[in-house]
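Structure representation.

___
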Amino acid sequence: MRIIRLDPSFTCWDELLALILTAFASMNGRIDPPSSALSLTAETLAAKAEAEIGHVAIEEGKLTGCLFLRPEADCLYVGKLAVLPAVQGKGLGRRLLAIAEETAAGLGLTALRLETRIELIDNHAVFTAWGFSRTAEKAHPGFARTTFIEMRKNLAR
């Protein structure tokens, strides 16, 4: 398996979209509001890769995982961390997160930040096991209840 940074030579936007939708499919009907992944297109993913730092994992010519990173003032935001269900539990998520940590260090940032839906208790446990701590509870616009939590991982300097 290899993990590559997305660059202008990447052309597999439909496959990347399918990967994200497949990885996030278990959320359908479980979270409210629905995942922003459902509004992605191949074109918006290409634009996201231009605006952010994207990586994909490739095994035997097939995309198996991805993540997008966005530098913020005091941390690196980790978004659209996705691993195909068939390869979950084999360490790919940790490998992608290690890329995020290396990227943060290269940018002089000392923390990672992510958001996960309040309903996805299993994700909370995985991120906690990976060193993240809950830092805030927030709501999407138009919602009076908590819809997602923010988690943060401080990195060694």
Remarks:
- The mean pLDDT is 95.
- The helical segments are 13-24, 42-51, 92-106, 121-129.
